[in-house]
Structures are given as C-alpha cells and as structure tokens.
C-alpha cells in the first residue's frame, strides 16, 4: 500500500508542532508557525514534501470548514447590534481600499481589471489572526475591538461575492447575463437555506439529539455543512458559499453552540493544513531576487491599510485613538486573500512572479500583526497628545457636546456596555443624576433621541471630563473593557478632582494593583464576581437553604475582598474618617412592613444586641436625624444608616426584612 500521504501529514504536523512551540515563546500566533512550516517543508526549501497536490486538497476542506464555522458564529442579532459599523465601516473600508489600490495599480502600468483584483487581495484582513490576538488580550469588548469586528464581519460576508466576480475581471464570464444567473442561483440557495434553517435543520437535529449519540450529532453537522457546500458547487457556485450558508442555517438553531464546539477541532486541523499549503507555495528565490520590492510592498500595505481604515473610523465619528488602534490591527493581508490569489493565478490575473511577490508580502504582514497591535497604543497616544483635541475627539456633529452639564453631586458613567447600561437605568429609576460618556457615535445618537444626558468622546481627555462636570461629580464609574484606557481615565479623573470617588470595572485580578496605585477607590474584578455567581448557582442546584448560601457567599466575599482591600490600603490616598474605619462598612437599610425593627425603640437595644451595628443617622421623608435620640421609634419606610463590620451588616439586614 502507498502511505506517502500519511507520511506527509505526519512530517508536516511534527514539524508544525516544533515550529509553533518555538514561535509561541516569542508570543507569535500559531498561523505564522504553520506558514513557516510549509515554507520549510515545501519543495522549494528542505523538500520534505515533493507532491503538494494531496495537501492542497485537504487544505480546501479547511477553507470550507472555516467558512462553515464563521457562518455558525455569525448571529443575526449580533449583526444588528453593530450593523452601522458592519455596513458603513466595513463597506467604506472595502470600497475605499479597492479603489485606492486599483488607482495606484493603474498608475503603475497594470491593466485596470488586474489592478482592481489587487485591491480585492489587499482589502481583506485576517479574521483568524486578529480574533485570536484580541481574545488573548481581552480586547474583544473594547471600542476598537468592536470596530475591528464590524469591519471583519463585512469582509467575511464579501468573500463569496469577490470570488464570484474574479472570473469576470479576467474576462472569463459573459458579462451581466452571467452575473445575473450567478446572483439568481445564490438567491435561490439562500432562500432554500433560510427555510431549511427554520424547518429542516431543527427537525433533523431534534431527531439526532433524541438518540443521545454524540457521534451521530457530529456526523449530522458534517453532513449539513459539506452537503450544502456540494449542492452549491453542483449549481455552479463555490464550495465556500455553500458552507457559509449552511453555517448561517445552523446558527439560528438552539444547537449552534454544541455544533460549533464539535466542529472546531476538525476546522483547526484542516486550517493548519491550509496555512501550511500556502507556505509551501512560497519560493525562497523570490526573497533574494526582489528584497527591496518586497520590503516596500510590506510597508506600503501596512501603512496604507492602517491609514485607510483609520480614516474610515474617523469618518464614522470615532475618536482618533480608537480609529488608529483599529486601523493598525487590520493592517495585514487576510487568509482568504490566499484563496482569491489562487483563483487569480488560475484566471491569469496574477503571473507566477506577482503571485510569489504577493505570497511573500502577505506572510510578512501576518507575521508583523502582533508588533502592529503592540505599537498601536503608543502610536495612538502620541498622536492624540500631539494633535489638538478638536482634531482627535471624533470628527462628527456628536463631538459638539454643547456647554458643560449643569448637574452637581452626580455620577459619571464611562462606557455604555452591559454594566454601564444597567447602572444608568437603575440611577434613572432612583432619580440620581448621571452623565454617560461613550465613544460609539451611533449609541450616542440613539440615547440623545431618548433624552439621555450623554457625551460623545474619549473620557481620558480632560476636556471631556470637564464637560461631564468632573469637578462637581460625586462618583466616576469606569465601565469599559479596555484596561489601558481605564488606567488613563482613572488617573485623569483623580488629578482633576482629588476628592472624587473612583470605581473601575476590570476583567482580571492582575489589573487591580496598577489601578489602586493610580488612586482608584474601588476595583470590581469580573473574574472574582463570576466565581461568586458560579458558587451561588451550584449551591442552588443542590437545594441548599438560601440563608446558608448567603453565609457561604458572604464568607467568600469577606476572604476575597479582604485580600483586595489590603491591596487598596497599600496605595490608599483617602483622607478623613475613611482612614480610621479599617474593616468597617457604612450601609443603609429600609424598614419594611412586619420587620422585627418596625415599632421598636432605639433604646430597646434590639439592633445593637442582635447585630452589633451602630446607628449613624435615620431618614424619615425629607428629614434626617443624625445621631438620633434613644427614644426614636422605627416606622415603616425609615431609612437607617448603619456603621459596622461586614458580619454585623449581614446580621442587621435580617432585622429590617419581614419576619
């Protein structure tokens, strides 16, 4: 038997393991390791693999699976949430990049259809590399992360149309008639997939799930994905389009998450072969024959794409800092450009030499992506610090925020994500004045129509905080996902108003120490709060009594936040009475009907004897009694301000609730 194919796979995966492990030590993405593996193992370098045809065939399955999983991951609801950035941002970036490259290519002497095809290749960025790097850095929920995601989604949606139009650029089609036929076929397949997603796919998965067989479930996923891809190929469309449509069909079912988790290992294995196969195609001779041309191409692609994408972000109203970071993040060539380049070579839009130049430049831009992302922050900070604020705040009508807000003793909320939205809604219900600072122009426009007090701009700039009334505010809450921006905002707020109370939401415990050093009063780490919520849900499923659950959670919180407070105390800037209340808390409680405290006199000693907490003040209606007399009788609706340890506060809370 001939085991050459098996030997080739073993050699490639073994070499990939070594290469990727070495590169990960330098914090480079795995994709770069796969490209280098293919380059080394291919017929033009060490020559471990002579016949690349079988590897390329398996790599095709990798492209199909990648589009299939992208379709599953794309949610129509998610698309609607960031639709402005997807449609406007992605559309502008794609059209502008193609147009600029086409003009430059025509000026360089290339035929216009070929120059347009060059624009196709340059316009796409790497979803695989960028999403991996952003997820590792925890930047998916940042403004620049959302902007990059919106543009990438549009690029992914345009992959299939670009592939369909490639033959027409080469003159292989018959004009508008062919385009109309292809479009009609695509519409028919999409309509069929839509009804399949509503009826056939859920019914199929329901029958499979009833068997409780994971093997059958995985087989059904592969059948739906590959089957749809095969059907589209039979009607003259691409395998990639069918796989993408099949993924969208599954994404709307309740089994999408399980389907994605089951198919991911197959995708990763075949996609690694795809990148390895691309690396095999690169001839080392091209690197020595045109070193300066390659260097110029790489720099032109990175600088050009960064500037064009940043310009799109600024045109949409984003602050310059966010637009620059997103632009530098998207400055590489994408993996689907390799698929397009293969079609271009097939149809004569690329010569073997230009194809090799493109491969070399593309691999270099991918390898430089981590460096671009590392430099994005300092470069954007330098630009925003150097240029006037009127240039960097976001060139849109939203940047004209009018005069300074007229509130006093209010809350400034930086970021209108899930945390900021919940806080703003609660403060509104309690009629506590608040001002929101947000960098998303579409969110700002929407909230202003609803009458919300919201300011467009970057809260790390003193002009924005001053406009939000930082000098008269009581609290500033930083509820964004960008750790670097949170530190800048906290430092700026503290320097402008030394007495303001600063609360910062952060993702990880490791980010707490730098924030406390900057003078932040309270840091809420999501990592810790998530562990508390998991504990609550686990104990609840075991039917543990509610009071026992609360005691367990209180103990976890006490141990955890005692540790967090110890970090805070090392960097505490606080003055006044707070410095003398180590380990104590101040809390307010409302007297409920039929609560143990209702009708009790302060002199009766119930509160002191059963909880140990001390009454500081009592509010009844609009009247406040500080240090109330012992004859005070508690009534329903009284708000009592207590001082005590966390344990005393928990004991006191039970006295104010109905027995």
TrEMBL record:
Its main location: membrane. Residues 573-658 form the RCK C-terminal domain. It comes from the Bacteria. The keyword Phosphoprotein does not apply. Keywords: Membrane, Transmembrane, Transmembrane helix, Transport. The chain crosses the membrane at residues 6-23, 30-49, 61-79, 86-110, 116-135, 147-170, 176-195, 216-249, 269-286, 293-316. InterPro entries: Cation/H_exchanger_TM, RCK_C, RCK_N. It is a multi-pass membrane protein. It is found in: Membrane. Residues 408-525 form the RCK N-terminal domain. Belongs to the monovalent cation:proton antiporter 2 (CPA2) transporter (TC 2.A.37) family. PANTHER family: SODIUM/HYDROGEN EXCHANGER FAMILY/TRKA DOMAIN PROTEIN, SODIUM_GLUTAMATE SYMPORTER. This is Cation:proton antiporter.
């Amino acid at each position: 038997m001939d085991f050459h194919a098996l030997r080739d796979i073993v050699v490639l995966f073994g070499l990939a393991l070594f290469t990727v492990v070495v590169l990960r030590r330098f914090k480079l993405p795995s994709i770069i390791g796969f490209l280098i593996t293919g380059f080394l193992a291919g017929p033009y370098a060490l020559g471990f693999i002579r016949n690349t045809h079988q590897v390329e065939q398996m790599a095709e399955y990798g492209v199909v699976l990648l589009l299939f999983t992208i379709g599953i991951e794309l949610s129509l609801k998610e698309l609607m949430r960031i639709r402005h950035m997807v449609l406007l941002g992605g559309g502008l970036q794609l059209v502008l990049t193609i147009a600029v490259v086409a003009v430059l290519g025509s000026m360089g002497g290339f035929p216009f259809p070929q120059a347009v095809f060059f624009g196709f290749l340059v316009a796409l960025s790497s979803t695989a590399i960028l999403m991996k790097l952003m997820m590792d850095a925890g930047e998916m929920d940042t403004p620049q992360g959302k902007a990059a995601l919106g543009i990438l989604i549009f690029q992914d949606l345009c992959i299939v149309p670009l592939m369909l139009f490639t033959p027409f650029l080469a003159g292989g089609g018959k004009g508008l008639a062919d385009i109309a036929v292809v479009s009609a076929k695509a519409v028919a397949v999409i309509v069929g997939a839509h009804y399949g997603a509503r009826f056939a796919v859920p019914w199929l998965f329901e029958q499979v799930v009833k068997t409780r067989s994971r093997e059958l479930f995985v087989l059904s996923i592969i059948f739906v994905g590959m089957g749809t891809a095969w059907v589209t190929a039979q009607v003259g469309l691409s395998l990639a389009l069918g796989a993408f449509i099949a993924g969208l069909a599954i994404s709307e079912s309740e089994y999408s998450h399980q389907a994605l988790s089951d198919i991911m290992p197959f995708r990763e294995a075949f996609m690694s072969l795809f990148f390895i196969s691309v690396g095999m195609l690169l001839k080392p001779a091209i690197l020595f024959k045109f070193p300066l041309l390659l260097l110029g191409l790489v720099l032109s692609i990175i600088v050009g794409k960064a500037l064009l994408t940043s310009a799109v972000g600024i045109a949409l109203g984003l602050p310059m800092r966010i637009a620059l970071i997103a632009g530098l993040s998207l400055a590489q060539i994408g993996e689907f450009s390799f698929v397009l380049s293969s079609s271009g070579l097939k149809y004569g839009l690329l010569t073997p030499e230009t194809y090799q130049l493109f491969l070399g430049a593309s691999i270099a831009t991918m390898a430089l992506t981590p460096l671009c992302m590392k430099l994005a922050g300092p470069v954007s900070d330098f630009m925003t610090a150097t240029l006037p604020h009127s240039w960097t705040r976001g060139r849109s009508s939203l940047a004209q925020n009018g005069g300074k807000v007229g509130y006093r003793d209010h809350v400034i909320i930086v970021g209108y994500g899930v945390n900021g939205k919940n806080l703003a809604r609660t403060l509104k219900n309690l009629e506590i004045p608040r001002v929101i600072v947000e960098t998303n122009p579409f969110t700002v426009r929407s909230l202003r129509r609803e009458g919300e007090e919201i300011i467009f701009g970057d809260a790390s700039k003193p002009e924005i905080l001053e406009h939000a009334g930082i000098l008269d505010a009581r609290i500033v809450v930083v509820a964004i996902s960008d750790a670097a921006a949170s530190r800048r905002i906290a430092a700026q707020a503290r320097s402008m108003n030394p007495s303001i109370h600063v609360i910062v939401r952060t993702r990880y415990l490791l980010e707490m120490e730098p924030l406390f050093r900057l003078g932040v009063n309270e840091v809420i780490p999501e990592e810790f709060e998530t562990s508390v919520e998991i504990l609550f849900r686990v104990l609840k499923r075991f039917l543990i009594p509610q009071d026992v659950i609360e005691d367990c959670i209180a103990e976890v919180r006490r141990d955890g936040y005692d540790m967090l407070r110890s970090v805070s105390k090392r960097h505490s800037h606080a003055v006044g009475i707070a410095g003398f209340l180590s380990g104590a808390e101040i809390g307010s409680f409302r007297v409920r009907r039929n609560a143990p405290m209702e009708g009790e006199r302060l002199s009766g000693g119930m509160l002191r004897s059963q909880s140990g907490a001390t009454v500081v003040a009592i509010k009844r209606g609009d009247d406040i009694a500080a240090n109330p007399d012992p004859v005070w009788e508690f009534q329903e609706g009284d708000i009592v301000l207590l001082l005590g340890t966390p344990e005393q506060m928990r004991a006191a809370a039970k006295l104010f609730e109905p027995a």
